[in-house]
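Now read this:
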Amino acid sequence: DSAGDPTFRELLGRVRTADLDAFAHQESPFDLVLEAVNPTRTLSRHPLFQICLGLEAGSAPQLNLAGVPASEVSGLANGSVKFDLEFLLRSDDGRRLHGAVLFAAELFDEVTVRRMTRVLGDVLVQVLDEPGVRLSGLEVLSGAERELLTGPWAGATADTGDVSLVGRFEEQVARHPGRIALVDGERRITYAELNAAANRWARHLSSRGLGRGDMAGVLLERGADFAAAVIAVVKTGAGYTLLDPDFPDERLRSAATDAGIRHLLTCPSLAARVDGPWTTHTEAPAELPALDSGNLGLPIGPDDSACLMFTSGSTGRPKGILSSHRNLVSTVSGQSYGRFGPDEVFLQCSPVSWDAFSLEFWGALLHGGTSVLQPGQRPEPVLISELSRRHGVTMLQLSASLFNFLVDEHPEAFATVTVAFTGGEAASPAHVHKLQRLKPGIEIVNGYGPAESMGFTTTHSIARGDEPPALVPIGTPLVNKGGYVLDAHLNLCPPGVTGELYLAGEGLAHGYLGRPDLTATRFVPNPFGPAGGRLYRTGDLARFDRNGDLLYEGRADDQIKIRGFRVEPGETEAALLTHPRVTQAVVTVHRDRLAAYVVTDGDIDPEEVRGHVAERLPEHLVPTHLTFLERLPLTPNGKIDKRALPEPTAVTTASGRAPRTPLEETLLALFVRVLDTTADLTVDDDFFHHGGHSLLGARLTNHIAGALDVRLTVRDVFQHPTPARLAAHIDTLRAAAVPAKKARPALRRRTETERISS
């Protein structure tokens, strides 16, 4: 028991006590021990323990055979081991240890085992010299390892200058005024046109009081005006927070309030959704032709706040991540993980509320490239494929789930792509290998990075091979970003040892807006860098391999990823508990979907609870499964026992109807196929209540197009999520597509004059 960071002397006492207690039961039969412990049985390892230490004292037995010389043999292997790792040690004189180490070659290689034995020897020397040393104070790294972990493996640095987003963008305007900056549908906007529109809007906002240190909200559909609004805000010296029109109104209002916005840039159709004590602007740049279109020339520093992004919060309150111009500029400047320049075409398809937006938008505009704006707020696989081919997209950033979907369903989306990014979740080696075979020349990059470090912080370019890679590293830190794997005491973990990943460098945000307590917990002093430097504690577990690549090993807390979205179960639990009839709630993950278990003070319709949550949270935070219990199971110490929760089951609509038309029957069959469910669905069952999400919605639209020759979008599925409502929507689309027949003239009796003239 090493709890509490004891000294070696204290640890020795604990071990001695435990051993004496164990010796009192040394006659217990092995079968009874197994019955009492009841471990998980498997043929791959010993049921009770996998590491064995044997220590013998005294000289080794001597073999004396008359007339036969005998000598010691070392390195003898018989091809099998009893344990994963076995240390067989002997002390001849009470002062020196020697022996052998047996290891399972399927789990360890010789280099790793030799390092273990060296470290064991170094640790024994240290504790003999100073028995009072605490375990956290033991040095387990060699000088060469420490130099690697704090040097090359921690990340490289380079001078990128103290330039703001505005300065970099206006440089590109001066160099490439006639080049295409944005593609919005059939519109192509040059750098000069985009800059002029943003300048006019910025002057208008500045005259209304928006300036350096302020925050403005942008609530617009993705398009040219949206892009001009973002640039206009930073030109005033203010920061922006992007409000997703697909989010519930309550979420938008709370985000705007928490951000402390002073101005809201929106349009007349969206303005009423976010009312508050801020100045609302519904005018577009085209309505401000009289204003000067020249650059404003306002002082803007690299450490000024540029944007505020919200991510899921464990307490039920979203966290506002405040990032600077330096964070954004550094992420897309002087980097080798992608190709940045005037010949590159980016597709901006990620939700605007994600940090991924920055790479797709600023990654193009700060280098004279082109950003193609996908209509709508959710990535649409069919649109991605069409836009990518039509506009020659070269840099395509995708969540791992979306990457896999496109590789399977729309590989033509990568026809012109030179660099494809997969991130947000663990990369699929099979899909990576499949795309490499389909498009031999494409570079596939696995990226990792939380929003607190502004997008990608580590990347790994995946080499092509004859077989899929066994696993895909998250790679090495970007230029001017850093990464360290540390233990609970902020000590460096040796290569191969799992610890918590801490990030450093120019990508680190200022912190969480209005949350100094949380900022102090997650952003800590950097003991390995210059004075004043900080580390961000990610909560992700990782380790370095022998090549200096980082390997992702999971989470140190309850945070999860759902299709690339960071999800704190506590936020969904808090929303459930705001319902007046819900008394207890716990949220877990079941087959990559959120499952909620609730206790109520009476009977209640599940649809009412779901609707209550959907009115407050984005789609990815709304639980797919909702299970009602009389009480939540508890562990002996009074905590919720998540392992004892029943498996969630899909809930069908009790009053659901059978299909009434061939169209409804076809759609219901497609729902069942795409959802891969055995539930007895009706035409009134909601697609998203049975495991559906945006990517499955895209797959459903593909099947509908093939079966019914009807082109739908994911948004159509969200707006009409049952077979009955979707059938009605399709009937409406078909009716609108049929040209109206010319009305036949009414019959009437001809006049005498008409008869004569004919």
